[in-house]
Amino acid sequence: MHRTLLTATTALCGLTTMVLAETDRGAVLTTYADIAAAAYADSLATAQELQAAVEALIADPSEATLTDARAAWKAARVPYQQTEVYRFGNPMVDDWEGKVNAWPLDEGMIDYVDASYGGATDANELAALNIIATPEPMIAGQTVDATSITPDLIADTLNEADGIETNVARGYHAIEFLLWGQDLNGTEAGAGDRPWTDYAQGGDCTNGNCDRRADYLSAATDLLVSDLEEMAALWATGGAARAAVTEDVDAGLNAMLTGMGSLSYGEQAGERMRLGLMLNDPEEEHDCFSDNTHMSHFYDGQGIWNVYHGEYTRTDGTKVDGPALADLVAEVDPALDEELTAKLDTTMAALGKIRDSAEDGFAYDMMLARGNAEGEALIMAAVDGLIDQTRSIERVVTELGLDSIAFEGSDSLDDPDAVFQ
Amino acid sequence: MRTALILAAGLFAAPAAAGVPEALDQHILPGFDRFVQETGALARTAEEDCTAGTVAPAYHAAFDTWMPLAEVKIGPSDTGALSVLFWPDDRGFTPKALNGLIADADPVVTQPEDYAEVSIAARGLMALDMLLFDPAYDSADPYTCQLVTAVAVDLARQAETLQAAWADEFAAALRSAGAAENATFLSPQEAMRALYTQVLSGLEFTADQRLGRPLGTFERPRPRRAEAWRSERSLRNVLLAADAAQSLAHALAETDLPLTDAAMVSVREAAAKVNDPGFQDIDDPQARLQVEVLAQEVRSLRTAIANEVGAPLGIAPGFNSSDGD
């Protein structure tokens, strides 16, 4: 009913201008979907390279093949992190995301851990289960047949076992743990130091069960590839996620801005950066095993920048670009466009400083240490930038007249009956 | 036509953030005064006698004064609230951090100003919940005694810092929303929206986390995931959080709120039927049902406030710190 009324008003207001503006908005959403398609395709391609490197490691375990696999994992993170801005506004991405990038994880559920890790916790009885060493584990009162570690076993039985979110059995971070092992350096520099012999078969095997460990790594990598195939297809021409954002202009713009705001504030500034800093706990690093957190944070921020500016640089260096949200905002309120552009740049500069400092040897772990004022200043500069840009993103929502659409987690506003379901 | 124009002009000139000063003067600022008072009393009690039995009543009194403020996570509290009440703690950071300090007999406990540097998991109300009420900790042990005192003194310092930051600067930023020199709130509506967002997201947190986490699923309830279950405050915190939302809603609104008040009555009725104040009995289906009903009533309160406060003002909530996972 509302829609009809709006259309009528539009016609009265002057057909040409409104149709033009409408076209612009549609084109902005096409760019948004094109960037998603390219970034998920890049994520898939780099995951397939990781898969090849993992197969090489398992076929011929050595320092060199382990190093190659680790490098492939890091390369795969670059495009993937830039897709995270698609999560919160797009239910299809959000429902799926836990399969590939769930974090933090109780890694003791998967493999051996240091004694300092401890055992079961209030929140997770399986925190130290060690499935690789346990072919017939007891999960929530049931004996489970894990004699053969397959993608199905990981997906259907182990992941979120016992309904616990930190039982992350699949995705980038499970693979990361299997490639690096625990980072036992605390808030000193240094990543996990799993020996390549953890994958050596026969007498050279270290830490036991190398065959099952190799099976796990292989199965988890296969799962990652198939999960990314699914998401890449959803954004390709004719895909359902693309259709969802291009069919309804307001809903599509709302998805863009919800993704930008929720990733900036609650997720990246809050959950990932500030909380880790305030806990002084290196395990709260997003990529804690590989010490790649500074890169993940940087590319998360880059993804937000990409969506606003309608521009993405692919892993092969080519650019995907088109009409951008920034163009739309500049038409409606040039000062607001300048404000948000400047804030996104401030955040990227702060994230760039963290990245460069870490690459120069001031590891992210060290920045988190108790009383490390320099690290705190570096991290909080990015946190403040992310929170500040969220305010401008809210202003864009208001300026584009999208603020009657409730944000994520507000079921009761969209549909008061939902609360009684 | 003329009348309409004047009316419209009047609307734009009027301080649209009516309600913001009320929220500050009736709820938030006096709330911080009480929080400073009770955490100060807690610190003095612990300094005199750190045994759990003596400190516990002062801990409860201090916790009671935090709950009206707990969900207002903007301005100084955006970061500051995290170290007052660190929860949920899925990965057991609080026992880990406390055990680390105890194992090392970390001398940080002797310098209250240094204690602000330790992990938030070892600070604030939830650290006291663990130290005073978990049998694994013995306040008769000299180091644990010092630790209890250090946490209490640090909490009192946090309260003073927060109170000052709100009273000196942030309250002024909210009041002067839309003024030329105000870079935080560009319009009165932005200040209103910021506070309104806290009310709605706070109730969402209470329903989804304070109640939803222990409820888990019917097959697998999670009593140990309740907030402050050790000190048996889980239910009390739900009620105090709901009270706070109702109080802020009244401050923000310019009209009576009959639906909101009725919803709050239902919250109280549902809470009265919950037997275990720490939700530790929810393995029992009957007990579980009462907590589920309470969660539903909290969500209804949220809907009532959205309809009675948000809708007439034409504001939808903005982003909140719980967006994300």
From TrEMBL, chain A:
Its main location: other. Keywords: Signal. It comes from the Bacteria. Gene3D superfamilies: M75 peptidase, HXXE motif (1.20.1420.20). One of its GO terms (cellular component) is cell envelope. It is found in: Cell envelope. This is Peptidase. It comes from Thalassococcus profundi.
UniProtKB/TrEMBL annotation, chain B:
It comes from Thalassococcus profundi. The keyword Signal applies. One of its GO terms (cellular component) is cell envelope. The keyword Signal applies. Keywords: Signal. Residues 1-18 form the signal peptide. It comes from the Bacteria. Residues 28-303 form the Imelysin-like domain. Pfam families: Peptidase_M75. It is found in: Cell envelope. This is Signal peptidase.
